[in-house]
Amino acid sequence: MKDIILEIEHIEKSFGDTQVLKGINLSIEKGEFITLLGASGCGKTTTLRIISGLETPDKGSIKLNGIDVTKDEPNKRNVNTVFQNYALFPHMNVETNIAYSLKLKKVEKNQIKQRVAEALQLVQLIGFEKRMPSELSGGQKQRVAIARAIVNNPDILLLDEPLGALDLQLRRQMQIELKNLQKELGITFIYITHDQEEAINMSDRIVVMKDGRFEQVGTPHEVYDLPKTSYVARFVGTANIIRGQIETMEKETITVHMKSGNVQVKRTDSPLQIHDEVTIAIRSENINLIEENDGEKIQIVEGKVSKDEEPLGLTGIVKEKNFAAGLLRINVELIDGKEITASRHGIDSTLEVGDRVRVSWKPETYVLVDMVDKYTKNSNSSILQNTLEPSLISMSPDVTDGTKSTKCSLTDIPAIDDGKE
Description:
GO molecular function: ABC-type polyamine transporter activity; ATP binding; ATP hydrolysis activity
Helix content: 10-25%
Mean pLDDT: 81
CATH topology of the largest domain: Rossmann fold
Subunit structure: The complex is composed of two ATP-binding proteins (PotA), two transmembrane proteins (PotB and PotC) and a solute-binding protein (PotD).
Number of strands: 22
Shape: elongated
Distance between the termini: 35 Å
Function: Part of the ABC transporter complex PotABCD involved in spermidine/putrescine import. Responsible for energy coupling to the transport system.
Number of helices: 8
Number of domains: 2
Strand order of the largest sheet: 6-7-8-3-9-10
Low-confidence stretches: 294-311, 372-421
CATH architecture of the largest domain: 3-Layer(aba) Sandwich
CATH superfamily of the largest domain: P-loop containing nucleotide triphosphate hydrolases
EC number: 7.6.2.11
């Protein structure tokens, strides 16, 4: 039987006329590392504040260890929070900052000394006891904040983008340290981030949030390789979204027609029929480009396609090549004006801007994300238009050290922006 430590049931929350949370539900097991992943304004921080007791939901309940704590004050819940801005007392040294909550609880002095020493050992700050916050680096301040949070032995530790203020190298180091610390302590971590790489590297399960709802809950593998909607496919990593109409159906494959040509995909258990409109997600790393040269097919971008394999019926021109964070991205404009992106590790490629190529991938590398895609309903056009969606989204700031690729855009992601997230 699963040891459920936290139950979030039908939670709704509004600020004024803006509904920030829209009936979210989630059960979390003891010792899990759960990450709430989403764009700014999707409701991540509000969810954390309701769990901690800093906000009260309009509807629904929060149960901690089976007990309803929805109306309990924060100090009545064995839940602590680590914030991005550290929130250290500037007039107290490291030791006093960590011991502060224990003194409020009137814990005996010898117990305080022992627990503070244990916390300092866990965050690798032995010898820093007498330093003031102003004498610490950003990473050291964050370690103090974490030590102060764990010294109380909480049931759940909430972390609101705790690494957001750190530089790239230190952030990656702290990701490893945090995950190792969580495993050692066995404490349930609920972590907030907008960085998909951070979520994938650290989490047991990821909760992708969009507009106050949980779009998908699953393991990193499920969220990345088996996204349930095109929003998840776009937000977690980089995906090409193809919309088309089923033309033929075989025992193991389906042929989908689009303006740029026909593509073949693996058949699923979904109740599909000929002429159904479908949405397909293809990760950029699964796209292969084959140069067209006097009728000969020459594989340019390494992948799973063999030299003699018949490529799909998508033809286009290489429009742009970008290299960032070890990835070469090649953008191809198809004959209908839409774009598709292929990516590979390394920079070596003989493919040049202006080359004519054909696009190929193995049928098993696609994911059928949704037949009627809610994500596209914000436009006046039909839901599925037999076109390939050109907008590719990569949410990891690590890709270009804080900047996005020229082909990445967030403008078409609907989000609530009420300042409270």
